[in-house]
Every structure is written in C-alpha cells, then in structure tokens.
Structure to design on (237 residues):
C-alpha cells in the first residue's frame, strides 16, 4: 500500500492556512489588546500607558500623584513607569538632577547664581581651625583640620612629635687605639719638656722628677722594643 495522499481540493486550503499562520501578528509592547501589529491599532493598553486614538501613550507618572518618591529624591519618568533618583548632595529636596535643581541648599553649600555650590570654609574670614598648629583642608560640603608637619593629634589637640633621643658621644669615644697611644706619647712629651725646663733652673726636686720620668720612659721603650723583638723571633720560628 502506498502513502495516503491528501485530496487535491484540500491542498489550497492547507496552503491558505499556512499563509495566514505566517501573518499572525503580535501586539505592540504597549498594547494589551489590538486589531493589528501597528502602534495605532491598539484597543487596550498595559499599565503605565493610556489609549489615545487607538495608540497607547506613556503616562508621565512624575506629573501626577502616582510618581511619589521619598524625601531628598526626585521622580524620573520611564516608558510605562518611573524611577526615584537621589538628589544632588548639595540639595535638600530637588526637582531634578544636578545642583541647579535644588529646592534648598544643604549645609556646607550656598546658592551662587542658580546653583548650590560648595562653601570654601578655609578661605572664610573666621578661622575654621582654631588650633595654631592646624591646617584647614576644604572638602566637598565641609572641611577638615589636619595637624601641621611635625605635629600629631592627641586628645583632640595637635602636639609636637617627640624627636628620638640621640645619645651624645664623648670627646674621645670614637678615637682609635693607635691614636690613643699617640696622644699619650704627646702628653708624656709635654710633661717631660716642662720638667726639663724646671730642672734646667736648678730645682733639685724637678730635676729628680725629670730624671725619673726619663728613666721610666727609657725602661718602657726598651721593654716595648724587647717584647716586639721577642714576639718577632717567636713568630719567625
């Protein structure tokens, strides 16, 4: 048995139904019911729209009691609805965006022309920062008091930073051992010269002290040379 074929008289009808199905339309976005796909063929509108001459027109909720927004915000109309947006920081209440749409200027701002602009408290005649060691820094709508360089804030007051204590070195703290020996020899030489001067005047006391010092120096020199000679001999073995 072959496949069952549709009667020939049904083929035009099937073709017509298919053609109509291709042309099935959807309503415009704003329409909930329509007679065609065009925007002027609406019969009923979705929420946020109103019918006018078979066309759905957006309702501006911001111009009606529908667009109610919280304090310090304003209504912004959208297609079929609305949004509540924050006022500019310079405003207390507003009718739109920006500092030129303020109902009232916020604290730290003043009306200049048609805009609420920041007040530079640091340039005011009255000192914003009362401390002598404070520096005023203007900020948006306010100001800040910072301690001057070399100062820090303690208990709400700027106090001078304590510098790290540097221990003072003694007069001979950095002197090397060989330098100490040279200074000792110089001092000993000065003493000998003084004793020699006094001994030359015939003073027996200073003469005996001078001779003793010369003997001590000679003994020290000879013992030092002897120690060095002995050390070199032992090292060379």
């Amino acid at each position: 048995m072959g496949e069952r074929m549709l009667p020939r008289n049904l083929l035009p009808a099937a073709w017509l139904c298919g053609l109509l199905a291709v042309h099935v339309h959807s309503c415009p976005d704003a329409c909930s019911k329509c007679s065609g796909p065009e925007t002027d063929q609406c019969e009923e509108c979705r929420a946020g729209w109103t019918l006018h001459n078979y066309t759905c027109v957006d309702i501006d909720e911001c111009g009606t009691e529908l667009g109610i927004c919280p304090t310090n915000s304003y209504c912004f109309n959208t297609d079929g609805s609305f949004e509540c947006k924050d006022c500019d920081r310079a405003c207390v209440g507003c009718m739109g965006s920006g500092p030129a749409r303020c109902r009232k200027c916020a604290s730290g701002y003043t009306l200049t022309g048609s805009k609420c602009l920041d007040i530079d408290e640091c340039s005011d005649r009255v000192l914003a920062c009362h401390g002598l060691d404070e520096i005023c820094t203007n900020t948006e709508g306010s100001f800040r008091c910072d301690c001057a360089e070399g100062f820090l804030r303690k208990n709400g007051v700027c106090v001078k930073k304590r510098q790290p204590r540097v221990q003072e070195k003694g007069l001979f703290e950095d002197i090397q051992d060989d330098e100490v020996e040279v200074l000792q020899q110089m001092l000993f030489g000065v003493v000998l010269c003084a004793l020699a001067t006094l001994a030359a005047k015939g003073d027996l006391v200073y003469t005996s002290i001078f001779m003793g010092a010369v003997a001590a120096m000679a003994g020290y020199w000879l013992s030092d040379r002897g120690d060095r000679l002995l050390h070199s001999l032992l090292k060379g073995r």
Notes: The mean pLDDT is 77. The two ends are 131 Å apart (CA to CA). The first helix runs from residue 11 to 22.
